[in-house]
Description:
Layout: E1 4-9, H1 13-23, E2 29-35, H2 38-47, E3 52-55
Amino acid sequence: MNKIKSIAIDDEFMALEVIRHHSQKIPYLELVACFENAIEAMAFLQQNEVDLLFLDINMP
């Protein structure tokens, strides 16, 4: 079975840690990267394909 490739984008470190922790419990989900700002995430997304974004909706 192919895993769902995901990334997390959040400006709060602890929120990213929670996402990392919970994503490890889901066998079909692969968290490939975490970002604390949208600029780094955008650069990553221009070079890589993902299926799912965990995105903070209240970021600077």
